[in-house]
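User: Some background: our group keeps a shared notebook of sequences we're curious about, and every so often someone picks one and asks for a predicted structure to add to the entry. Today it's my turn. The entry only has the sequence so far, pasted here. Could you supply the structure so I can complete it?
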Amino acid sequence: QVQLVESGGGLVQAGGSLRLSCAASGSIFGINVMGWYRQAPGGQRELVATISSGGTTNYADAVKGRFTISRDNAKNTVSLQMNSLKPEDTAVYYCNMLIKVTTTVLAYWGQGTQVTVSS
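Assistant: Of course. Here's the predicted structure to add to the notebook entry:
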């Protein structure tokens, strides 16, 4: 049984910063890609950032230069540092990991954490 637990969301004024974290626990044989996605009210879930097991990162154009994704392989965690936040960043943020469980790789999602940016 694998579980992802997120933390760090909240309310912040435009221009402020927040840091999200996500920790995986359970029977984990390895983790490939880790990432963050978000879903605004009435919108579809969209990619924010990903990081490979080797540390290669990828960002959505909307967050480039403002958000930084990082991972700690020893602790099975992924973080998202969000700076210069804008009202349009308001959404529920979900972490996602591709986790090797025995001989199978499965996608797991966190429960979601609300980020609200006021203008």
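Suggested note for the entry: The chain has a mean pLDDT of 97. The chain has no helices and eleven strands.
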